[in-house]
Amino acid sequence: MTHTLLKHWSFIIDVARNSEKGIDASEERLKHVAGLRSEVYHLFKGFTNGEGRLLLVGCVDQQKQLREYGSIISEYHRYTSPNNAPATIVELESWRTKILDARGQLYKALNKAYQGAK
């Protein structure tokens, strides 16, 4: 998920940078962004599966962290909808930081569970 999401982010920020210079995105680039956006949407199934597995093995805190990470990704997904106003570079940089911070918190929680299972 993170890999695809960050690819989407890199294309979106490229479009925003060009837009600020007065350069319109090519149709091909917009199709690529739409494809990545669709891929992110479909990858959410893995989050649901992961949450279920975490709950199954008693990792409630880790499931909550995964849900929080998914929630931030969902907010980003809505924010970058083509139906919304174009995103600014500053806002997109902020989203990238939020996403990576949430991912870091998730991995920290997963590591804690892993260390406890040893």
Automatic annotation (TrEMBL):
Q: What is this protein called?
A: Uncharacterized protein
Q: Which organism is it from?
A: Pseudomonas poae
